[in-house]
Amino acid sequence: MGRYAILSDIHGNMHALQEVFKDMERMGSDGMILLGDLIDYGMQSNEVVDLIRDRSDKNMVICNIWGNHERAIMFSDFTGFSSERGVLSAKRTAATLSEQTIDYLDMVPNKQGIEEFCLCGKKCLAVHGSLGSPYWKAIMPDDVRGDYSDHDIVFSGHSHLPHVFARYYDHEDALHRDKHAVLFINPGSVGQPRNHNPNAQYGVIDMDTMSVELRSVPYDIEGVMRSYDGSVDSFYRDRLRYGV
User: Fold this and answer.
1) What pTM was estimated for this model as a whole?
2) Could you read off the pLDDT of 90-131 as tens digits, one per residue?
3) Are 145 and 165 in contact, with CB atoms under 8 Å apart?
4) Which of 22, 75, 152, 176 is the most interior residue, by most CB within 10 Å?
5) Parallel, antiparallel, or unpaired: how do β-strands 61-64 and 32-34 relate?
6) Whole-number average pLDDT of the chain
7) How far is CA 91 from CA 55, 78, 96, 162, 193, in A?
8) Are 65 and 127 in contact (CB under 8 A)?
9) How many other CB atoms sit within 10 Å of the CB of residue 233?
10) DSSP states of 107-132 as a string?
11) How many whole angstroms separate alpha carbon 97 and alpha carbon 105?
C-alpha cells in the first residue's frame, strides 16, 4: 500500500527541508503529508515554498494544510502569538514573501488547518493543532483536545514535539473487543525542532505494516544560523543549535 512521509513546521528552513527530501528519496516515499507552518522564523520561506510547490506539481502531496503561521500572515492577524518577537518575525516574513509564494499559499493548501482524507482505506484526519483549536492548541499524549473516535489515524503538528501513541475508544464491535484504535502521529519539526534534538525531523508511516518511524536527519545547522541577517530576533537562530 505504500510508505508516506509526514512533514510539519518547516519554518523557512530550506536546508533542513532539502536534507529531509534526500532522506525521503533514500528511504522511498509514495507521497507526502504536510501539516502546516511552511513559513516564518527562518530566512528562506520563499525557497521552502518553491521546493514544496515542485513536489505538489509532481502529485506527491496527499494532504496540505495551513498552520497558524500561514493563517496569521495571510490574514494579517497576529493576535494569536504569545510574544512580541513572534509578532515581529511574522510581520517580517509577510513583508518578504514573493508573489508566487503568496499565490501558492492562497490557492493550494487547505486554509482551515484541518482536513479529512482517506489513505489506503484508513480514515485520516490532518490537523495542525487539534480539534479543540486547529491552529493554536496542539495534541499532546496527556491531552488530545477532542474526540477522534471517528478516525483511524490522526496526523498533527504545531508542538514541534514528535510522538506516536494510540487511544482506544469504546465502540460496539465484538470482533475488536468493543474498542476502536486511533493512531496519533506528530512528526516533530523539520526546521525548528524543540525536543532537544537539533536535527531535522519528520515521520514515515508504512501502511502495509501500520508502523511509524520518527526520523532525524542532520543538516548544516551552523550554515543556516549564519544566514540569519538580524531581521528577526536571534532567539529563532540560536535555538537551532540545541533543538529547543
Assistant:
1) 0.96
2) 999 999 999 999 999 999 999 999 999 999 999 999 999 999
3) no
4) 152
5) parallel
6) 96
7) 27, 8, 9, 28, 22
8) yes
9) 17
10) HSSBTTSEEEEEETTEEEEEESS-SS
11) 10
